[in-house]
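#random but structural
TW: two for the price of one
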Amino acid sequence: MRQVLGLALLGAAVVFPAQADQTLRVVYPPNKHETIAEQIFLIGTAPLQGDVSVNGRVISRSPAGHFAPSFPLQLGVNTFTLRYGEQTVTVQVNRTPTAPAPPLGLTFAKGSLTPTTNITRLPGEQICFGAIAPPGAKVSVKIANQTIPLIAQTQTVELPPNAAVLTQTNQPATVSAAGRYQGCTIAAKPGQLGKPQFQLSKNGATARQHGPGNVEILTPAALSVAQVTAEQGVARTGPSTDYSRLTPLPRGTQATVTGSEGDWLRLDYGGWLDKKETRTITGAVPPKSLIRSIRSRQIPGWTEVIFPLQGPVPVKVNQGDGSFTLTLYNTTAQT
């Protein structure tokens, strides 16, 4: 039976088969890989006899011959040449900027207008807009007969990716925000505000462009109710898989939708859920439940606590050393 060694990094499993004819291999990153990270791991393996070098520098390896050194990345294409004996492997990694560069002409940078997708919010919530345009321009956005000036930003703080903890480079960086414009407003009344129209003026010339996302203000008395249809709804702290996970929501859980962003729904307790894991219940009232007649019993290995509810509600679990906290949202105790 062949033996297999697995190396886990950043949630992905990398497997090195133990073969007698094994030569220099790079399993990550693939050639022509693109990233916004400031560092990259080169993960691979080679036979123990001989050295492996990267751009002329010999790297350390594990007793089994595997390696995973990290290297800083410059903006643009970074070339890494790995050598083992007569064998050479070249990997190119393209580090792209986190935001588009300011355009040269009288136009907005491609993909820079925000919101980038349809959004819904409650009355009284702040709605923010952003754009990247030539420095020194006058930029504004018009929506629902309101004109909001977008103010030029001088600096912005960029956070490192989560992988930066592995290289001990997880420090925020203050960078120039030349060409970035931002502004916010508050809509007091429900209704369809439509797509914002961005305008920039410079040197006596003016350009206009509609944003990609539609803005709607919800009616508080007519909010929809979402029911979880997945076995375990993956709730998150924000509207994408980039955000942290919260306690999963069991199938059948109901909650009022207080906002949305693209395919993500914001539920009344603060969690965000992918729309495909839910269904909308027509004519439903905001879900609430009483709690009473709570009881507990000892079972070998744990304590079981039973909370009778009128319906499934969002939950949050926090467990620490010697403590366990369960939060039941949209409930009222009658104990």
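TW: number two ↓
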Amino acid sequence: MLKTFLKENRSWILLPAAVILLNFGTFWLYRMEMEPFIYGTVLSGVVCVLVIGLRFRKFVNGCRKREQVISSVKPDAPDVFGLNPEVFLGEEESRTERDYREMLRCLRNRALQQEQQFLEEREDMEDYYTKWVHQIKTPISVMRLALREEDTPENRRLLSELFQIEQYVEMVLHYIRLDSSGNDLMIQEYALDDLIRESIRKFSSLFINRNVRLEYRKVEGVRVTDKKYFACVLEQILSNAIKYTDTYVRIEADDRGRIRIEDDGPGIGASDIPRIFEKGYTGCNGRQEMKSSGLGLYLCSRAAKKISVEIDVDSEPGRGTVFSLKLPEQKKILD
């Protein structure tokens, strides 16, 4: 900081030195006594040191205030656009400071206006898609009832495709909820077995139509979580397991909130595992079979973080995949 101060205030240091040298030259040329020169130089030096000391103090205070401003406008600051420049910059002291202060005011006001406009547009978009999701469910329900009137292989195939459409509609709703600024968590105590069986029942038609064997045993115990976000996590993993498996899906759980979902599908390559939760990443299997949108596991990961569920993946090509979930203790999720 001292180096910066000396660099920015070198004129205040060089000017007195130049004056002293000029006076010394004058005294020396005219062969005058040096005592008055020395006395005046000492007094001038004391005054200069005091002035420079005061300026250094002001410089340090200004640097600290600017550091506060910088820390307040970082992305992780709680209120970026609510920052008032007057709080940190103090009183105006020069025309330059007034101009910079006015620029800050204008930028702050513009940022506040843009933030408000963004929030309004986002709210309108959320309202539109939420209404669209609920409205599209009506024709889906009508089509499902119509297809169930006659049990034929073709109708069962169409029902399976209709279920996939409904899953994508649900994915849109989850996407909106996860990006919403509000907090719609409903944390309650649920029987772990009921949560798992509800998701299994939802996919029962896919298990049957694709001739996939389900292995699951009842589990005791309760867990505190949000039902819809937990369903988003478990159902996305189940959907992938059914989509890629060859013969079976095995679900194991215990009363400590650990759930293990295993399939005997093609597996996931070691290079793909670190990226499967990235938005839009489909991996080798998704690119080869054109079955993946790259959004399912991304939404699954975000929903898991929202309810503090830990996800671990163990897989090798040709040996299937195991997704392990660890539901948090009650205290952790409430925190």
